[in-house]
Design a protein that fits this description.
Membrane topology: Multi-pass membrane protein
Number of domains: 1
Keywords: Cell membrane, Membrane, Transmembrane, Transmembrane helix
Strand content: under 5%
Family: Belongs to the 4-toluene sulfonate uptake permease (TSUP) (TC 2.A.102) family.
Oligomer: single chain
Protein name: Probable membrane transporter protein
Subcellular location: Cell membrane; Membrane
Number of helices: 13
Largest sheet: none
């Protein structure tokens, strides 16, 4: 019973992060499950099965809010599903000893990416034109494969790539990526079912993760109004990097004298990233205040407590996930 409660808290924490950042449910929950001693393939399989429920709810909500570009969904969902199925099959074929460092390396890389991404000011400008299939299809394929083999990564890979293109509204980027993830999570679950069998899915774990995620959804809506997404992204990225660094150092057979130095350097990099994120946040708040003053208006509490417009538009739609 205590273990199920811990798993529910894992799902709750992952959903809080996802609700604030618009990504990283699988990334956060897989990292915490590995830290709890769950086998890599079982962790990824259970997370993806739980995501079938959370992404379905998110997709319906995004559709109701008008946040979905169905052309983009079609172009990334099908290749993403193929990549996820292939990734699940690949991870299922690996032994636990081989899968642990592989999965930790992917999670470490994605965590480092979160650190870099949220330490810098985020782009918000738009460009003319629409996204092409020759860009969307490979993106979906790669994001799906990374998502299944790493236990998470669909959002961290697909969302920034679409946002950087500048050819789609931020709210539609997040809504379309989340809606497509339903098919990706389903395909990954089928791949794990074939590769691991039904015993590969720990049903109590899945239900606990799902319950925690559903409970956290309304809390995430409240949390994002208080905790700036840019600062939270840098903090979460550092946690993911440090927790997966332990597995990587063990796999590389680094001696005891090297590990403390490695942890110290990673912690230093984490602190620098958080400082840069805080600086970018304060600058964004100042710019918002200046613009509001020029217009003769007082910025609202929501404008002051959130930094990039991209995160603002994701609040209402992502909070239900």
């Amino acid at each position: 019973m205590r273990k199920l409660l811990v798993l529910a808290l894992v799902g709750l924490a992952a959903q809080l992060v996802d609700g604030a950042l618009g990504m990283a449910y699988g990334l956060t929950s897989s990292t915490l499950l590995l830290l709890a001693g769950i086998a890599p393939a079982a962790a990824s399989a259970s997370v993806h099965l739980a995501e079938v429920g959370t992404t379905l709810a998110a997709g319906v909500a995004h559709w109701r809010f008008g946040n979905v570009d169905w052309r983009v969904v079609r172009r990334i969902a099908v290749p993403g599903a193929l990549g996820a199925f292939a990734g699940a099959t690949f991870l299922s074929a690996l032994s636990t000893a081989a899968a642990a460092p592989w999965m930790a390396a992917i999670l470490f890389t994605l965590g480092a990416y979160l650190l870099v991404r949220f330490a810098r000011p985020l782009r918000t400008e738009r460009r003319a034109g629409r996204l092409r299939g020759r860009f969307l299809s490979p993106l979906g394929l790669v994001a799906g494969f990374v998502d299944a083999t790493g236990g998470g990564g669909w959002g961290p890979v697909a969302t920034p790539a679409l946002l950087v293109s500048g050819r789609l509204e931020p709210r539609k980027v997040i809504g379309s990526v989340d809606t497509a993830e339903f098919l990706v999570a389903g395909a990954a679950s089928v791949g794990f079912l074939i590769g691991l069998g039904s015993e590969g899915f720990l049903l109590p774990m899945v239900l606990a993760l799902l319950a925690g995620g559903l409970i956290a959804a309304p809390v995430a809506a409240w949390l994002i109004r208080l905790v700036p997404a840019q600062l939270l992204g840098a903090v979460v990225g550092g946690v993911i990097v440090l927790t997966n660094a332990r597995t990587l150092m063990h796999a590389l057979d680094l001696d005891g004298g090297v590990r403390p130095v490695g942890y110290a350097l990673l912690a230093l990099a984490w602190g620098v990233a958080v400082a840069f994120a805080l600086r970018a946040l304060l600058r964004a708040r100042h710019a918002r205040t200046v613009v509001a003053a020029a217009r003769g208006a007082t910025p609202s509490r929501r404008e002051v407590n959130t930094e990039p417009p991209r995160q603002q538009v994701a609040v209402d739609s992502e909070s239900v996930r």
